[in-house]
Write a structure and sequence with these properties.
The protein is mainly α. It is 53% helix and 0% strand.
Length: 99
C-alpha cells in the first residue's frame, strides 16, 4: 500500500472544506477555535488530526469525529506499514488476522 492511496487527512480539510468555502487558513482556524499555526500544520501534513480537532470539525458540520479519527488512523497505518518493522515473534501462533 502506498501513500498515494492514503493522502494526509489535512489535505482533505484543505481541498474539500477550506478551498471550496473560500476561507483563509486564519478564518478557518478562528471558526474552529484554534490557532492559524496549528491548523496550517494539519492542512500541510505536518501534524495529524487530533481527537479534539475531529470533534471541532464535527461541531462545525464537517462530517463526524469518528470519520476524521478513522481517516487519520488509516493514514498513520499506511505510513507505519511502509517503515521497516523489527522481527516480532508470534504470541498466538494459531490465530490469523486479516490485514
Amino acid at each position: 500500500m502506498n501513500t498515494l492511496s492514503h493522502p494526509h487527512p489535512g489535505s482533505t480539510i484543505r481541498d474539500q472544506v477550506i478551498e471550496p468555502l473560500r476561507l483563509t487558513v486564519s478564518e478557518a482556524a478562528q471558526k474552529l477555535g484554534m490557532s492559524r499555526t496549528a491548523l496550517s500544520r494539519v492542512i500541510n501534513g505536518r501534524a495529524g488530526i487530533s481527537p479534539d480537532l475531529a470533534i471541532r470539525l464535527e461541531m462545525a458540520g464537517i462530517s463526524t469525529a469518528r470519520f476524521w479519527t478513522a481517516l487519520q488512523t488509516e493514514y498513520d497505518l499506511a505510513q507505519a506499514r511502509q517503515r521497516k518493522q523489527p522481527h516480532v515473534d508470534r504470541l498466538m501462533p494459531n490465530v490469523t488476522f486479516a490485514s
